[in-house]
Amino acid sequence: MTLVAIAPPDYPVELDLAYATARNFTGKPVYARAAAYLHPIAARNLRRAIDLAAPLGYTLKIFDAFRPSEAQWALWRIRPDPDFLADPRRGSPHSRGVAVDLTLVDTKTGRELDMGTEFDAFTPLSYHGDTEIGVEAQRNRHILLGIMSAAGWDFYMREWWHYQLFDSKRYPVLSDSVLRTGLMAAE
Prior knowledge:
By secondary structure, this protein is an alpha+beta fold. It contains three helices and seven strands, in the order E-E-E-H-E-H-E-H-E-E.
């Protein structure tokens, strides 16, 4: 399986790959290298989302995309919470290369839109349709949902930032070895 590299200039997005930094719920980098990849079909849908967002004045900011099965296990060992993480024994859409975690950035100001919570906030406030967050954040989530849905993505109810291909389980779970230069540190 050949995954598609998601990076400018081919994909005009911002990359802020949380798991390549310590700015994630583990408190340390999970990936040794910051790079984003997607299955070719997911990459095509991401291109559509980019094209839909641009005339509205938005850029997509990617927090995570393909997540090797080894990384899914590393996350699960720290927080085995099936409400917010896929059990690696069943496989995550991320580990299949068909999911992306992202937000919107205002192209003029360069600022992320307020979504009511941070990325990976494992709380009911992160659910799509939560009405306890501010009206502006609700509106921004709906804009993101509309863009991603129109581009062919399905959403995960508990995470405003997570989108995946429909019928994601039909794609195989992939390990770090599918990449020429892996994301994970050599052990």
